[in-house]
Amino acid sequence: MAVKKVALACSVCGSRNYMVVKKPTRVERLEVKKFCKYCGNHTLHRETM
């Protein structure tokens, strides 16, 4: 069975920089502060579909 992955999108510029494994136990969208190479800052990244 293949592993399902979702992208993390920057909340400022909207670029999808990171991929994470989708876990069935997580009911809310993942929000993590990560570095965005397009903005040049640490910004909030949210899980997208």
From TrEMBL:
The keyword Ribosomal protein applies. The keyword Zinc-finger does not apply. GO terms for cellular component: cytoplasm; ribonucleoprotein complex; ribosome. Gene3D superfamilies: Ribosomal protein L33. Keywords: Ribonucleoprotein, Ribosomal protein. GO terms for molecular function: structural constituent of ribosome. One of its GO terms (biological process) is translation. It comes from the Bacteria. Belongs to the bacterial ribosomal protein bL33 family. This is Large ribosomal subunit protein bL33.
